[in-house]
Write a structure and sequence with these properties.
This protein is an alpha/beta fold. The chain contains eleven helices and 28 strands.
C-alpha cells in the first residue's frame, strides 16, 4: 500500500511493543488486507522483542538476534504499513503526528522529520525507568527499558568477567558485585538470571572466578517486601528461593544516592558494586507531557476513559504502560496481560467506530502473576477465572508447572503476532538447534 493511497479511514498506532504490535497485526488482518482502513505502525526501532525477555538478554541467556521480529516483514505479512521514527508531537486540529528525524550511531540524519496523518490515533509507547530524583542514578546506573540497554548491559557484564578472569591481582572491592535497585518483577528475575548465567560462565572456562567467593548479587527494595504489587505468598516464596541461590535481599531499604562505586542506603550503609542496575519504578516517556494539551497524571501517563480514549480527544486512544486507566477494581496495572487485553478490546472499538456503533468499556481481568527465576524455578498464581470458574480464586503454583505456564505467555504473544504456523515452525527450529548453541551468548 503506497503512501499516496488514501484509505477510507487512517489508523495510526505509535509504539510497537507487545500491545501496539498485537493491535496493528490484528487490525491489519481484519481491516488492512480488505482495504477497509489504512493501518500504520510507527516505532523508533526496526525490530520487536517482547519486553519481559529483556532481563534474559541482559544476562546472556537469550540471544536477541534470534528472537527479535522485524517490523517491515510483519507489516508485509499482516496488511499494515511500518514507519520508522519516534513520536515528537501531535497536532489535534490537523489530525497529524510529527515523527522525529532518525539518526545513525554517528548522529547523522538518514530520515528527516516528517508528518503522518490519522483519523484514529492510538498511542502505546510503553514506559521508562523512574529515578525518583535520586542523585547519581542517571549517571551511574544501567537500565532495562529497551533492547539496546539490555545489549549494552550484556556487553559490559562480559567485559567485567573477562577482565576479572585475566587479572593476576585480587579482585577490587565491588569488582564483580551487582547491585539491583528495585525488587519488582524485572529486578527479581534479573537477579536470578544473573546468578545462573555467571555460574554457567565459569563452566565455559572462566576458571579463575569462584562464584560463591567473587560474585555478589544484591537486590534492594524500598518497601517492606519484594514484589510488593503481588500477593504476599508469592513474595515470601520468591524471597526464600532467591536467598537459597545466593542472592542477598534487603527490604525496607531506601537508596539515597548512587556513585560509581555503589549504592548509598538510608542510614549511611553502603553497598559496593561496580555493576549497578536501576529497576525501582516506571514513568511514561517525557514526550507525552507536551502532546497538544492531552491530560497526563503525575507519572506522565495519558489519562484515558474506560473506552481507552483520552479525556480531551475522542480521536486519540492510549493503552499499556503509557496510559492511566481506572476500572471498577482500581487502576489497570502496567503488565503485559493488561496490554494484551486492551489491544483485543481496541480491535472491537475501532471496528465499532468505523461502523458508527458505541464503543465497549475496558474491564481488566487478572489472570494471575508468574515470576520466572531462571532455571532454578518459577512461582506465581493462576486465577480461577482463567480455568473456567466463575469466582476468581487464586491457585498458587511453583516449580515446573509454574515455569511451563510462564513460557506459555510468550507463546501466546507469538501466536497473536505470527499466527499458528510461523509460531510452530519457530518453536520447532529452536528445539532442533538448541543443542548446537552454547547456553549463553558469549559475545
Amino acid at each position: 500500500m503506497s503512501d499516496s493511497t488514501r484509505a477510507a479511514h487512517r489508523i495510526t498506532i505509535v509504539g510497537g511493543g507487545a500491545g501496539g504490535l498485537e493491535l496493528a497485526t490484528r487490525l491489519g488482518r481484519r481491516l488492512g488486507r480488505r482495504a477497509h482502513a489504512e493501518i500504520t505502525l510507527v516505532d523508533a526501532r526496526l525490530t520487536h522483542l517482547w519486553k519481559p525477555l529483556l532481563h534474559e538478554v541482559a544476562a546472556g541467556s537469550l540471544n536477541a538476534f534470534e528472537d527479535e521480529l522485524n517490523y517491515v516483514a510483519l507489516a508485509h505479512w499482516n496488511g499494515f504499513r511500518f514507519r520508522l521514527g519516534a513520536l515528537e508531537s501531535v497536532d489535534r486540529r490537523a489530525h497529524t503526528i510529527t515523527i522525529a528525524p532518525s539518526v545513525d550511531e554517528q548522529g547523522r540524519e538518514f530520515i528527516p522529520r516528517r508528518s503522518i496523518g490519522y483519523d484514529t490515533l492510538v498511542i502505546a509507547i510503553g514506559s521508562t525507568s523512574h529515578d525518583f530524583g535520586v542523585p547519581g542514578v542517571a549517571e551511574h546506573c544501567m537500565f532495562l527499558d529497551s533492547r539496546e540497554q539490555a545489549d549494552r548491559f550484556h556487553r559490559d557484564l562480559l567485559r567485567a568477567v573477562f577482565a576479572a578472569n585475566a587479572q593476576s591481582e585480587p579482585l577490587r572491592e565491588g569488582q564483580l558485585h551487582i547491585a539491583i535497585a528495585g525488587a519488582g518483577a524485572t529486578g527479581v528475575e534479573l537477579a536470578a538470571e544473573l546468578r545462573d548465567s555467571l555460574r554457567a560462565m565459569v563452566e565455559y572456562g572462566f576458571d579463575r572466578i569462584v562464584p560463591q567467593r567473587d560474585v555478589r548479587i544484591v537486590l534492594i527494595e524500598g518497601r517492606d517486601r519484594i514484589l510488593p504489587g503481588l500477593p504476599e505468598r508469592i513474595s515470601a516464596a520468591t524471597h526464600k528461593l532467591l536467598e537459597s541461590i545466593g542472592v542477598e535481599v534487603y527490604t525496607g531499604e531506601r537508596i539515597e544516592a548512587v556513585t560509581a562505586q555503589g549504592f548509598r542506603r538510608a542510614g549511611g550503609m553502603f553497598v559496593a558494586a561496580e555493576i549497578r542496575v536501576w529497576a525501582a519504578g516506571i514513568k511514561a516517556p517525557a514526550v507525552l507531557a507536551n502532546l497538544d494539551n492531552l491530560d497526563v497524571n503525575h507519572l506522565g501517563q495519558l489519562i484515558v476513559r474506560p473506552t481507552l480514549q483520552t479525556r480531551a480527544d475522542d480521536h486519540i486512544f492510549a493503552f499499556g504502560d503509557c496510559a492511566y486507566c481506572l476500572y471498577a477494581g482500581g487502576v489497570v496495572p502496567p503488565r503485559a496481560q493488561a496490554a494484551h487485553q486492551q489491544a483485543a478490546l481496541l480491535v472491537r472499538s475501532i471496528e465499532n467506530r468505523l461502523a458508527g456503533k458505541p464503543l465497549p468499556v475496558f474491564v481488566y481481568r487478572d489472570y494471575g502473576s508468574l515470576i520466572n527465576l531462571s532455571r532454578y524455578s518459577a512461582v506465581g498464581n493462576l486465577m480461577g477465572n482463567l480455568m473456567g470458574r466463575k469466582a476468581p480464586t487464586a491457585l498458587f503454583v511453583e516449580g515446573w508447572f509454574a515455569r511451563l505456564a510462564y513460557l506459555s505467555l510468550y507463546k501466546l504473544h507469538q501466536l497473536a503476532v505470527l499466527g499458528f504456523v510461523r509460531t510452530a515452525l519457530e518453536t520447532l527450529a529452536n528445539l532442533l538447534t538448541q543443542r548446537s548453541r552454547p547456553r549463553l551468548k558469549l559475545h
